[in-house]
Amino acid sequence: MDFLTWPPAGITNVVQFLVFGTCAMMLIGIARAGFGGSIGLLAVPLMVCATGNDPALATGLMLPLLIACDYAAMCYYWRRWNLRAVAMLLPGTALGIVGGIAVLWFVRRAGAESQKQLADAAMMLAIGVISLGFVAIRVFGSLRTRPSAFRPAPWQGACFGTAAGFTSTLAHAAGPITTMYLLPQQMPKRQYVASSVVYYWLVNQLKLAPYICLGMINQSSLAAAVWLVPGMIAGVLLGAMLNRRVQQRQFTGIVYGLLTLAGAQLCYQAARMLWM
What we know:
- By secondary structure, this protein is mainly alpha-helical.
- The protein has eleven helices and no strands.
- The protein starts with 13 loop residues before the first helix and ends with a helix.
């Protein structure tokens, strides 16, 4: 019965947890089921707020919910994905996850919270700047001529995969990177979303055991996560509905717009952390 305790273990402000946590999981559900990974990035700071500014609890709490969300989205988009595009990311992804786990292990062992916050801020700033720069390049390029579809070489897939695996392990923040890799390939929107879904499913499975070993997923975090499942389900259903109703050109514009918002939010959050 520990999973049904109220308030959830480790949560001090129940109202804050339910409001921000439910919003975060709805965004993740929408991202997984309809609009790629960029909007899901906004869920990370919301979940940190939901847990009372506890990043370790927030990331550990989110992973089981992300995996559950991945399974729901996988059922909806079953076999619609582009396995070649996903497979090119995987070798680099494995390397990035190993690097991210090494950083998490070192930080938790050393207890160097200030150094971790500085590293997090630098990483967020870099991803934010790259995201905004990527959108600007694609927009200005489209004004001159219709951009050709991106056909990545193996080394490019490895680079994107390493960056995605590393950022996903540290903060579930691979959305902009996978968007920059998958969207320019100009897949049909359902194939694009399905490819994102199967990629995140694989990445999150690889992260699960290390998170448990590091103590980031435990009985307390699972007990808190149970109460956010309805928000996740609502987000998946809403995302699937939006994906059916939005046209391809509008879909691409929306994803680029969300990537711009995510990049700006990352830059703002990083600047606040560095200033403080």
